[in-house]
Amino acid sequence: MGETLSLGQPAFNRSIRVEARPERVSSDAGFLLGAEALHASGIIDALSEQLHDPRRQDRVDYSLATLLRAFVLMIAQGWGDQSDAERLRADPLLAMATSEARGQAAAGQALASQPTFARLLDLLARGENQALINKAPMTLAGQRLRAANGGRRVRRLTIDIDGLPLLAHGEQPGSAPNGHVGERVHYPLVASCAETGDLLGARLRVGNAGPADGIATWLTELIAQARAELADDIQIRLDAGFCDGATLDALEAEGVGYVVRLKTNQRLEQHFAPHRSRGPGRPAESPREWTRETRYAADSWGHARRVVMVIQEHPAELFRNGFFIVTNLPLSRYSGDDVLAHYRRRGKAEAHMGELKSLIGESLPCTTTKRCETETEAAFARNQVLLSLRVLAYQLMHTLRVPMEQHTGHGWSLRRLRERVLKAAARLQRSGSQLVVILEHRAADDWQRLWQRLHHSPPAPG
Prior knowledge:
Blueprint: E1 5-8, E2 18-20, E3 25-26, H1 30-41, H2 43-50, H3 64-76, H4 84-87, H5 92-98, H6 114-124, H7 127-148, E4 154-163, E5 166-167, E6 176-178, E7 183-186, E8 189-193, E9 198-203, H8 215-229, E10 231-238, H9 245-253, E11 257-262, H10 266-276, E12 288-296, E13 305-313, E14 321-327, H11 336-344, H12 347-360, H13 373-408, H14 414-422, E15 426-431, E16 434-439, H15 444-456
Parallel strand pairs: 4-10, 10-11
Antiparallel strand pairs: 1-2, 3-15, 4-8, 5-7, 6-7, 8-9, 11-14, 12-13, 13-14, 15-16
């Protein structure tokens, strides 16, 4: 059965002895829950059928489906570095979760090596393969939302888009100093839905990109897929920095409603000037806020647009504060207060992107800097694929989080889900022709709840 290795005895209690034995144990029972959610969605099998695999199939040890499933599950469980593959090679639950074999043979397959996963990124970064991987998070989100809506697309959905700086180590291809962040970063755009918590996709950009650089082109692709998979009525919500004419023109050309905060400037201040003074009389006993309508045309806009002026008054301050929101939502259906309430919901989107950054990864892998232009482009493409796989792993975790929230009646952070449910210890035992996974008892209640929810409410087929 292998060698037992004595690791020592703690000084506080000499009756305790720590040993390492070659038993079939794992600290990541959540591999099985993640694999069950992926199986129910069918997304990995669908991707592997569409992806172009140039490898000679008679020499392939690991199929694309096996490698993709393993990569996404490892990221979701917190093993986001490719070098972690070596530490997980003998994990029996990861073997069962990713293997295409059935029966007891599933537990005997070793995980692919780190170089194999590196070659997988090269393969996925090529041409149409990259486009398919980039669309995968929204496909999984669409399945979840349709399942929650009786198999139908939702009536209306708002997509939030914002930049998410990711720290760079050294002079990585595509990274650059960013004056706003004060660090050398990559500066991808991330699309999410604040109200539902779903992450829909990400587009990698160079670190010194302006806030709105590249967004107009990406919006066209994003909106087309969202209409096909999520809802007929798509709206877009953006923060200040995305209010340039090209972005707003692109949204209007797509027939999409938008709500975008404006950066304050001298001309907008002139609109606000009549409202700045609090006026005579006693101040209000509590802070107040209200809206006014105006028309405004920035220099980059081709025409004036509807702008909602938000006026804020505090009893302790002599002058009022305010900010502006540009929108094309009709006044007949959305009052100024409605537009303000709609914009403020985007705060949840920032929290979800914070979860992505803290749990899935705050940076992209290091890459040698002295490369030719072709190799630099290839490295950037690999990082784009890795970013999309991370968003897919987030979306997988969110698919597991939602049933836990529904069952318990309160919110769950992804960190709590991982530490309390997914990072459960388990031991594998063979019993006749079956493989029995013995889960640590403290996780039993949460697993039972989640397992029932997964089976009673499977994602709708794509």
